[in-house]
Design brief:
elongated, 2 helices, mainly alpha
């Protein structure tokens, strides 16, 4: 499996750069994979939780009872 000669014919070749197609930016390349993000919506859930916690802390500092909605 670890045959050192397996890719010996191509291992030292220079990296190919197309003369006809411009290189894609990192942002555009990353955007291709964003629809497959496993945690879509996580940021929104974290923001909602943070807002509720901040309101709860503010209410407790003022001596109020804050009941968070389910």
């Amino acid at each position: 499996m670890n045959d050192p000669g397996k890719y010996s014919d191509i291992i030292n070749l220079p990296h190919h750069v197309s003369k006809t197609h411009p290189q894609m930016s990192r942002a555009n390349r990353a955007a291709q994979f964003s629809p497959f993000a496993a945690l879509t919506g996580l940021d929104d859930a974290i923001d909602e939780t943070a807002v509720g916690r901040i309101e709860s802390i503010a209410a407790s500092e003022q001596g109020e009872t804050f009941i968070e909605a389910p």
